[in-house]
Structure formats: structure tokens, C-alpha cells
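Hi there,

I know you've been waiting on this one. I reran it after we fixed the sequence typo, so this is the corrected version. Both the input and the resulting structure follow.
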Amino acid sequence: MAGPVKLPRASSTKAVVGKQRKIQREQDARDAAKPKKPTAKQAKPAAQTTERQQPAPPLSRKHLQKPGIEAELDVAPQFLAPGYKGSGKLKGMKAIVTGGDSGIGRAVAILFAREGADVAIIYLNEQRDAKETRRYVEAEGRQCLLIPGDVKDPTFCRKAVKKVVKTFGKLDILVNNAAFQQHADSLLDITEERFDETMKTNIYGYFHMAQAALPHLKRGSAIINTGSVTGLKGSKKLLDYSATKGAIHAFTMSLAGSLLEQGIRVNAVAPGPVWTPLNPADRSDPEQIAQFGAQTSYGRPAQPEELSPAYVFLASGVCSSYITGIVLPITGSVGE
């Protein structure tokens, strides 16, 4: 069993968590000082398109401390995809998933393992969630390496990739998925500290990880970036986050062109609202948390297991050898 890997790094993950919680407290205080607006209730039943019924609003009303621990959610995200049967699409491959301790990253790691890949999970410091993800990956019969650290730090990213290659012998797939999000009602609420944390986590982190991984990738390898519907349509209360997701989409398309002659494919998935710790750690209003995702055509947020098969599709050359440079929208809304 592979335990957490201890790597020297320039910044302490504890300090990063402290900074993120400070940003969160400042926004929570602004929200508390404003008059409460009534939250629109769900007008129709949530759409279900398979026999497996997914949770629908109202969901949890619990506000999580950043970075958000999935184990603390009282409505658990669905990540196991029990109806998904592996068929060796990633047999013998080795993958890195950043932000793989919970949410979309956890679901992706589990399906990668089900398809035959060993997986390294990079996460900030959510040890409880990371160990649970490792338990599920190992239950699929694959190795799981846990590497805590801060993707804003390029030195950490290089050392993490080297550790993965040393442990697994190679690297075939990089999934950039780690993210920081904090809403703001006004551009004037976004401090330089908050802007830097969002930019450096969401786009610098992707850049650093791709740059560290590239020397180890070869023909048939894949990079998959997690974008967002906010990068396609914008979001008036996620100004800095939306900007990073738009940048990720452009980075994806540009890098795809740059690496195509090397036989390395680069794509992105752009989710709409997904029930993960990211959003209960963003909003403090219990009703807004409870109604998360109700505005979609589905009338509910996606569950991580509804996204993870798309990552398998884009990771596997058997499925997507002629696909590179796309941003695949999985938004839950018709016409988006």
C-alpha cells in the first residue's frame, strides 16, 4: 500500500489553507452584512435520464470550511458509477489527477483504476478524503500514490511528477483538476490576495503541472484539463474564477496544437454545476447551497460519476485518438 509521499516544497500547505480560509471568512462577513434575498425554489422535478436516481435540490445546507472535505458533506456526492463496467481502455497506463482527493477528481481516479490504470493523487492537505479515494482505487486492483502539496509551487510540481515516474516507471495521463473558487458580489470585493490565489491555483497550477509532466509523456499520452461552463458563458459572481476557466480553455486548445506532432492529445471538460465540496465551501447561505444546480435544465447539479466517463473517453486512445483541442461541455442545460 502506497502512503502519502513527503516532498520538500517552498510553501506550507497549512499556510495555503489558512490563506484560503481568510479569503472565505472575509466574503462570508460581506454576505452576512447584506439583506437576505429570497432563494428561488425548484419549480419542477429534477430530470433523471437513467434508472439510477441522482440527488436533487434541496441538498445539504451545510457550509464547509475551505478547502472543503467531502467526508463532512451530509448529502454525499455520488462517485462510484456502479453501472460502469471497465474494459481495459487504460490497461497498464499511469495517471496523475490533481485535486483527486474528492469530487470530480475522486470519481475520475476510480474509473481510471477500473479501466486498468495506476493513479497518483495530488491534493492540498485533505488527508481523510485522499485516503478514502486511495481505498476505492485499490479496491479496483490498482496502485494509488498520495502526494500532498500546492500546485501553485512549480518546484513541488516537478518533484511530484518525478516521484510518480520513479514509483510507477512512467507517466501516460495528466488530469489537471485542482481549483480554488470564492464568489464575490462585486469586482470591488476581489482583493489582490484573492485574485492571486484563484489565478495561481487554477491556471498557473495547470501550467506548472503540464510543464513538469511533458518531458515524461510520449505518443499516445493525454492531458485533460477541467474547465467550466463559467469559462464558456461567464458568471457575474465568479469573476476571477470564470477568467481562469476561460484561460484554461484557451490553454487547452493552444497546447493541443503545440503537442499534436508529438502524438500527445490535450482536451478539456467543461462541467456545469457538480455536487462536490467546492461549492458548499464557497457559499455560506444555507438556502443557496440547498438549491445548488436547480437552475439547470435538469433542475439539479451533476454528480461526479456523471462526469468521470468523459475523462476516460478523452484519456483513452481507443476512444478518442482523433480528438484533440476540444472543450467538452457537460453543463446540464439544453443549448449550452
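Quick highlight: The longest strand covers residues 265-271.

Best,
R. S.
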